Every structure is written in structure tokens, then in C-alpha cells.
Amino acid sequence: MVNFSDVLVLGAGPSAQCIVAELVEQGLVVTALASHVPDKPWPNTYGIWAEELESLGMASLLGHRWTNTVSFFGDGQGEEGVAPIKHHFDYGLFDQEALQKSLLLRCKDTNWCVETAEKIELVGSNTEVVCRSGKTYRGRVVIDASGHRSIFIKRPDHGPVAQQAAYGVVGRFSSPPVEKGQFVLMDFRPDHLSKAELNEPPTFLYAMDFGGGVFFVEETSLACTPPLSSSILKERLYKRLSHRGVEVEEVIHEENCLFPMNLPLPIRTQPVLAFGGAASMVHPASGYMVGALLRRAPALARHLANALAKEPAMDSASIAQEGWKALWTPELVQRHRLYQFGLSRLMSFDETLLRCFFSNFFKLPREDWSGFLANTLPLPRLLIVMMKLFLISPWRVRLGMVGFLDS
Ligand SMILES: Cc1cc2nc3c(=O)[nH]c(=O)nc-3n(C[C@H](O)[C@H](O)[C@H](O)COP(=O)(O)OP(=O)(O)OC[C@H]3O[C@@H](n4cnc5c(N)ncnc54)[C@H](O)[C@@H]3O)c2cc1C
User: Which atom of ligand 1 is nearest to the CA of 277?
Assistant: First the structure.
């Protein structure tokens, strides 16, 4: 017998669990199909500005929180070149287990099945998912939350996709790699690099003190096509640390990070809906997504519940259309385009220009830069902020922003 639900959700990552929790809250019957059990710990650690979680009433889900948050955009020489920019804004890391538990608690009436979806097809007015096990599941609509590598979601081909890549170590060090109690969003100081390396794609250090003598240090490439390899990033991380007289004494955990930053938006007429990485929801200029998942899931779930209730005979393709309209509103599409444009400009900058760009970016009023990074500024305000940034930037950065320096 075929299992039937209002909504079939693929995946058990943060996107799937966010949207399932909201759909259940709307009283919908949901079946979730994922390649593993839903309480299997997620492999990544997720960071977020604390205020984003506070505005959602979820600040208790932070496992770590830093008030001493800084970046370095100097050249690493002299007093000025090593001076930090202080963000005066708290940053945190999710307590992964608490986030997962709190979402799963809200998903309690969901039928979680350990299945790998292999095929999705329209059958009459419904959709069927055929799984590797041979089992078939049917629903009024399917939401693919299986991540950015989804094999089901169609999107236009805009050429090579830029990827964020990072290599990180949680460990113990011969001396603190960052100040005690400090979080470093971006350390772009390049004084450890050779002349040849300065002409290669720029990378920065993302680092934090976990307390108890344990630190996390990660060499990160904001976005690059093709992506920087893990071995290059590891080499750069060790070189950076060694230049500062820091040796790695114990590796507790290694993180290899690779995900697309400017994945084109999905084709929004397709009869399968998506959420999260599969729906290109990663912020193209920052790489963050979890805050957006928590903010955008309730409206999508409400919209789908209304559509399903209003028209009990509505077919899957029409329900998916409703969902796409709610998820990617014209305003959000326009904002996404602006961010993609911004990222494409940043990717053309050399390391000096990039440092200059970011040191000006963080001179914007805090509400402006944080709203830009969280994607919470309404379109007109976002345009004004981008204009302000242009006006406060030196001429060379302005020329880079408009593409005048491109070879
Ligand atoms: C290392 C790393 C660090 C990151 N750090 C941050 C951060 O600090 N802050 C932030 O906001 N964002 C961060 N991101 C970006 C983004 O938030 C993550 O990529 C996030 O995990 C995406 O969530 P997702 O649920 O869409 O996909 P995933 O987490 O990839 O989950 C996909 C799920 O789908 C399942 N699945 C896949 N295929 C199938 C199938 N055919 N059938 C059934 N199930 C399937 C998988 O088993 C998994 O459960 C990071 C990404 C990476 C890779």
C-alpha cells in the first residue's frame, strides 16, 4: 500500500527539520524521507550573529557566544596594520544538539522514514517518490530539502558555480592563536604570504576561543571558481599560524567545508518545491543560511497550509507554484540578484582591494552591515546601504565595484 501525506519532505538536515516543524505546526500530515535517522548529529557546526537568534526568541540555542568579536583588514605591518576592527556585536555557534532536539520535538507527529529518494514523478494530481528500497511514497506536494547537491531540482546553467571552501582545526596550540575569549570573523592580514601567493585567490582566517585551552582556526576562501583545495587551505593555515609563532599541538577535529555560494535560483515553475540548500537559500555574499531557514519556514508553511485547505483538489504542480511564490517573492529574488552581483564583484578583487573593501564595509552603521549579512534589509534600504558603501569607499574600490578594474 502506498503511504499518503499532505507533504513529503526529503532530507533530515537543518532545512528539512525547520520546514517539517512548521508544516506540523500548521496541522499538515508530513512524511520525511531521509538517508539517515533524523537524530543523527549534523556534520557541520553552524555560526550566526546572536541578534538574529534573539529576534526569533531562540538565543538559548547558542552553545557558545562571543562579545569580543573582531576582524583584521590591515597589512599586518606596524601598529595600524595589525589593529583589529571591533564589531561590537555578539556572534555565536549553535548548540547543534539543542537546535536539532528542539526542531525534532516540534516534528513529533512526523513519520520519519530512513529512505533515499531516487525518483520523483507526477501521478495524477499527486506526486510519488520512489526510494532505493523499492518503496513508494505519495503526497500532495514534495519539498526537496536534500541540500545543494539535490538531483531533483532544476536550475538554469549560468556556468561554473563559485564555492566557499575552508579547512579548519579544533585543537590545542603552543600559544593562543587568537586572544582569550575572542571571536575573529575575518583575519585577512597577508604578511605571511610570499609575493607569488599574494597574487593567488585571497583567503582569511575565521577563528574562535572555545575555552579550556581549545581553539577553532579555519582558513577560508570566500568564493572561488574552481574552489581552493583543502590541501592549499591547510598549507596556508599552518603557514599563517607559524608566522605568528603558533604551532598545532593537538588536532581534536578537522573540518573540510565546501558549498556553493552563487547557485542559480531554481526554476520556479517546476512541480517539486525545495527549501534550504536545494532552494539556493545560502546567502550569496556571506555563505550563511540557518537564520534564513528559521525566518522563512513559517511563512512558507502557512502559505502551503492555506493553499491545501482552500482547494482540496489542487494538483501538485499548482501547490508547488504557490510554494515557490511564497518562498522566493519578487523582493527576495531582487535582493538575491544584488547579492550575487556583489559576490561577483568581490571575486574579481585582489587581496589589497578586498581588505580595503571590507574595512569600509564594517564602517557602515552596525544595523546596515548586519542587516546586509543577514539579508533582513528591505530592498530599498539594501540599495541605499550599497550606495552608501560605494560613497564611503576609496576610488580604487569604487572602480572595482563597477567592474572598471576587470582585465
Ligand atoms: C562545513 C559547512 C559549514 C557551514 N557553516 C555554516 C554556518 O556556520 N552558518 C550557516 O548559516 N550556514 C553554514 N553552512 C551553509 C549551510 O547552512 C549548510 O550547508 C546546511 O547544512 C545546509 O542545510 P540543508 O539541510 O539544506 O542540507 P544538508 O545539511 O546537506 O542536509 C541534506 C539532507 O538531505 C539528505 N539527503 C540527501 N540526498 C537525499 C536523498 N536522495 N533522499 C533522502 N535524503 C537525502 C541528507 O542525508 C541530509 O539529511 C555551512 C556549510 C558547510 C558545508
Answer: 26
Q: Is the CB of 36 under 6 A from ligand 1?
A: yes
Question: Is the bond into 380 cis (omega within 30 degrees of 0)?
Answer: no
Q: Which of 73, 53, 78, 77 is nearest to 63 (CA)?
A: 53
Ligand 1 pocket check for 344: Cβ under 6 Å: no
Length of the chain: 407
Grid cell in block for residue 382: 539594501
**pTM of the predicted model, to two decimals?**
0.96
Of 328, 356, 376, the position where a domain reaches its end is: 328
Instruction: Round to whole Å and give the CA distance between 52 and 199.
Output: 36
Q: Using a 6 Å cutoff on CB, does residue 171 contact ligand 1?
A: no
pLDDT digits (tens, 9 = 90+) for 321-338: 999 999 999 999 999 999
Indicate the residue type of 133: S
Indicate whether 266 and 371 sit together in one domain: no
CA–CA gap between residue 371 and residue 350 (Å, rounded): 26
Using CA atoms, how far apart are residues 220 and 217, in angstroms rounded to an integer?
10
Domain count of the chain? 3
Ligand 1 pocket check for 300: Cβ under 6 Å: no
Do 250 and 370 fall into the same domain?
A: no
Angle, vertex CA 116, rays to CA 114 and CA 119, nearest 5:
140
Residue nearest atom 6 in ligand 1 by C-alpha distance? 46
Q: Which stretches in the chain have pLDDT values below 50? A: none
Q: How far apart are CA 63 and CA 41, in angstroms?
A: 15
Give residue 148 CA to ligand 1 midpoint distance, Å: 7
Shared domain for 256 and 241, answered yes or no, is yes
Contact between 84 and 185 under an 8 Å Cβ cutoff? The reply is: no
